[in-house]
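quick one, 336 residues, struct below
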Amino acid sequence: MKKRHTNKDFTAVAFCTLLFALAATSVQAQDLFIPAKDADWIDDDPFLQQTVFEGSNCYYFCATSYYHRKRHALSLHDSTLVYVHVLRDDWKSWLLTGFWKPKTLRYEMSLRQTEQRAILDLLEAAIQTAKTNNKEVDRPCDYATYYLCRNARKVTVWSSDGRTLPTRTVHALDSLCYATEHNDRAVLLRQLDTCRTLTDEFRQLYQSTCNFLKPDKPYPVLNIHISSDNEILVNDTPCSLQQLKDVVKTFMDTSGTEIIKIKHLGEYPVSKGVINFSSSRNALYKLYCDVQIEITTAINELRDDLALKKFGKKFEHLDTDFQAAIKEAVPLNFEK
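---
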C-alpha cells in the first residue's frame, strides 16, 4: 500500500529547508569580516556615543536587534581597556518617554604597551581582511551584529557560531571583556596570546590580498642572538654568558617605565623593555638552554629584590596574591 504524503509532511520538509538555508547563510557570513556600510553602522546610537566613541578610535561592539540588555562594548583608550555592559533597560523611562534608557556598568583595566599592541594588531588584521569580501550577506537567526573599528575603518560580522577566524576573534574579544570586568590579568594574558595567534593567521591567509603593516615596536627591545659560531650577541655586540645576567638586569632597570596601579603595591613604575631571543639553527642546544636560564635568573633576582624591599621575603616565600603583584611589577616580556 503506497503511503500518502500529508500537508504535515510538506510542512516539515519546508521547515527543514528553511533551517538549512538559515544555517548556510550564517556559515557564509562567517567567512570574513564585511566592510560596514553607512546604513549598517549606528553612529547616532547614544549608548555608543557615551561609552565608546569619546576618546577612542579602536573598539569592539556587540549589538542585538531586540534585546538591548545583551549589548556590550570594549574600547581602548590609550593605556586603558574599557568594558561597558548594559545591565538592564529602564522601563520607567520607556513608559514616560517611549525611549529606552539603558543602565550600564563600566569597568577599566590598565595595559602595558605590548598588551595594547596585541589588541591593535588583531583589529588591524581583521579589518584589512574585509577588503577581500564584497558579498551581500543576510542576517542570520541570532539577530546579533559584531562591529570592529580601527582608525575610523569599520567592519562587521553577523554570526558568532563555528570555528572561523571572525568567530574566534569575537570570542577572544568577549574574553577580554570578561577579563576587564573581573580584573583578571591571568585571563587577559591568555587571551592576548590568542590575539597574537589570530593576527598571525590573518596575515598568513591574506598576505597576498592585504597590505599588512609591519607592527611597530614603540618600546625598548634587547636583542639576544646566538650565532652559528655559538657566539652570544646582544644588540649585535659580543657578550659572554657570565655577563648576560647583569646585562638583562640593567636593561630592565633602565629601559623606560610606565606607571601602573598594582594590587598590594599601588602605583608602580613597570619596565616597558622586551627581550627578543633568537638562535641560529647550527647553534648548540646546550648554549641555547644556558642563555634562557640566564635570562630567567636575571628576572627572578629582580623579583626577589623587589619582594624583599616591599614584603621582607623572597619571591618564592610570598603568598600567591603577592607573587602575582611582583610578577606584574617585574614582567618577563619575552619574544622568540
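The longest strand covers residues 80-88.
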